[in-house]
Amino acid sequence: MNNTDILVDFDKSVGRWIGSTAKMLDNYLHEAFQREGLDLSKEQMVVLKKLHENDGLIQNELAFLTLRDKSSLARLLAKMERKNYITREQDDFDKRVNRVFLTETGRITFRQTRPIIVVLKKIMEKNIKEEEIFQLINTLERIQHNISSAEAQI
Amino acid sequence: MNNTDILVDFDKSVGRWIGSTAKMLDNYLHEAFQREGLDLSKEQMVVLKKLHENDGLIQNELAFLTLRDKSSLARLLAKMERKNYITREQDDFDKRVNRVFLTETGRITFRQTRPIIVVLKKIMEKNIKEEEIFQLINTLERIQHNISSAEAQI
DNA sequence: TAACATTGGTTGCATATGCAACTAATAAGA
DNA sequence: TCTTATTAGTTGCATATGCAACCAATGTTA
User: Fold this and answer.
1) What's the pTM value of the predicted model, to 2 decimals?
2) Of the candidates B22, B117, B150, which has its C-beta nearest A8's C-beta?
3) B126, A115 contact by CB (below 8 A)
4) A59-96 tens-digit pLDDT
5) pLDDT surpasses 80 at A44
6) Exposed site from B3, B19, B64, B124, fewest CB < 10 Å?
7) What is the chain A residue with the closest CA to B110?
8) Does A20 touch chain B (CB under 8 A)?
9) Which residue of A has its CA nearest to B133?
C-alpha cells in the first residue's frame, strides 16, 4: 500500500465510518424488532412513523419523506397493506392519487416500536455529552449540504 | 426533484442523520460511477479495493472485511466473475476454500474509481476543519462501541 | 377543443442483502 | 479409526431498492 492509497482511502475515512455506523444501527433495529416479535422491517417502521405524524399522505409525498423511489415505496406499501398496517384510498378529486392511512393495527404496531427506539437512542448516546451529539449532527448536516451543492452543479 | 435535496429538514435524531448521510454518500458514488461509465456498483468497488490491498483473500475473509454476509458476498463475486473483474481458485491445501484474485481488468477498473473517491472526499470535507472530521469519526467510533457492547449483553 | 406535457402510480428488470438449510471438506474427540 | 463437530461456500426464500418504460388522469397551450 502506497502513500496515494492512504490519502485516498475511502474505507478508513469519514465515509466508511458513517456507512458502517448506519449499517450497525440498521442491524440493531432489525434484530430488536424481531426480538420483540414485531412483524415489521425498519423501513416499514419509518413509513408508519410518517403516517403517524401525518395520516393520509399520498404515495409520492411518502416516498419523498422517506427518501426512496416511488416504486420502492409502492412495493413497501403493498406489503404493509397485506399485513393490514395501512390502507390506500383513491382521492376523490384527483383519481391518479392514492391517499395512505394507518389502520388500527398499524397504529398499535407503531406504538410498539417506540420503546425500542428510545432504548436505542439511550444506548447510542451512552457516555456521550449532549454537546457532542449536537456537534456530530452539525457536521453531518454540513457534509450533506456539501454533497447536495456538488450534485446541483452537475 | 432529487431525494437528497430535502434531507436536511425533518427528523433530528442522530440515527436519522447518520442514516441519511450514508444514503447520500451511496447515491453519490452510484451516480458518479455511472457518470464515468464504470460498470461497477459501489459494493463491488469495495471488494476490488480489499483485493487491491490484499489479493488472494478467501471469501469469508472478504465477507468479514466488507461487512456483509458470506452469501451476499458470494453472489457479488459471481457477478464480478462474470464481468471478468476477479477469479476464484480453489485452495490446494483446503479444498473448501476459494481464493479470490483481481484480474487485470479488475485492477484497471479499480484504478479508475480512485479519482472519483478523491473528489468525493474533497466535496464532503469542504469548509470543514480536519479537527472536526477527527471529532466526527471519534464520536461515531464511540457510538459503534456502545451498540456493540449493548448487543453483547443480549 | 385537440395536441402535447406533466404527474401519480405500477411493473419489469437489475442490484444488494440476511437467514437458514444444505453440501463438502476438514478438524476434533472418544 | 470412526463418529461428531466445525468451517467454507452455495442456494432458496424473503426483503428492499432504483431506473426506465408504461398507463391513466390531469394540466397546459396553441
Assistant:
1) 0.88
2) B117
3) no
4) 999 999 999 999 999 999 999 999 999 999 999 999 99
5) yes
6) B64
7) A5
8) yes
9) A14
